[in-house]
Amino acid sequence: MNKIYITTSIPYVNAAPHVGFALELVQADAYARHFRLLGHDVRFQCGTDDNSLKNVRSAEAAGLEVRDFVNANADRFEHLGGLLDISNEEFVRTSRDPRHIACVHALWRACAENGDLYRKAYEGLYCVGCEQFYEPSELDDGRCPEHGIALETIREENWFFRLSRYGDRLLELVETGELRIVPAHRRNEVLALLRRGLTDISVSRSAERARGWGVPVPDGDEVVYVWFDALANYLTGLSHGSDPTLLQHYWNGGQPTHPRRRQGHLQVPRHLLAGHPAVRRPAATIVDPGAWLRHGGWPEDRQVGRQRHRSGTHHPILRNARRTAILPAPAHTLG
């Protein structure tokens, strides 16, 4: 019997659920049920990405306190799982799970002890919708290639993670198949990214720009950058940083050490392939996931997609999910 840990990505809660996330939940649930029927020991986790700047700005636009806004939309996502009869054991909300801050801090300190963190002043073009920086060469007529919006120029001094240090090792893991990415064309995308070379990434932001919302940097006056914060959620559900029992059982295969070979599946959408996988092995203290599945998406023309959102969700289950929270249906969803 294998130990299998399955997670979905965690969505931003700047708006109500859309059909694309429902698709991801059902696909991950099918994997979990399949492996349970085969007699394997399965743990299945979902959750929400609560600490993004776009959540803060959406709350401000709605005239609501950030926590009230985030809680209401996170309720919608959790309720959607119930409507779809999703069989997850855990649902981690990164703003209110009492284990999450301990987990993020444990991961942060492991990176610091390994010499992976350093201070750096920088300036860059930032898309709040993507929650990431872009190079000018990556833009579409000067706008975000994902959302079609103008980017903000950000100047800050923050903590950076030495992602470039792990490029060769990550390339080896993927090329040898020790770390599987499916389907094959998504594996090729990651290989192309790794072969171009990785650059170091910011892992904190000023508390002022984040409006004080997010996980505080240990012993600092900043907040942890949302992608690093969200990355830790896959370990929060195993109580990393507070109780090692589940982590040893599911993540480390039940061994007190950190073995290389492990059975596991992590389901991720396309836009996370370039970010989360590359950061998953930050301090050489946690083993790599056994496999990444890049699930299918919900293709739509941007203008058509926005019209869909303006007219409300076009699926009865998702309309029901909207009615369970106090917030009005949003004009559209970024992300």
Structural descriptors:
alpha/beta; six-stranded parallel beta sheet; 12 helices; 36% helix; 18% strand; disordered C terminus
Strand elements, count: 12
The topology string of helices and strands comes to: EHEHHEHEEEHEHEEEHHHEHEHH
User: What characterizes the major β-sheet?
Assistant: 6 strands, parallel
Low-pLDDT sequence parts: 254-287, 300-314, 321-335
Q: What percent strand?
A: 15-25%
CA-atom Rg in angstroms: 19 Å
Count of helical regions: 12
Q: What percent of residues adopt helix (DSSP H or I)?
A: 25-40%
Mean pLDDT equals 79
Distance between the termini: 38 Å
- Describe the global form: globular
Strand order of the largest sheet: 3-2-1-11-12-7
Please provide a written account of the structure:
By secondary structure, the chain is an alpha/beta fold. It is built from twelve helices and twelve strands. Strands 3-2-1-11-12-7 form a six-stranded parallel β-sheet, sandwiched between helices. It has a four-stranded antiparallel β-sheet with strand order 5-4-6-8, with no helix packed on it. A two-stranded antiparallel sheet has the order 9-10. Helix 2 packs across helix 3, helix 3 packs antiparallel against helix 12 and helix 5 runs antiparallel to helix 6. The C terminus is likely disordered.
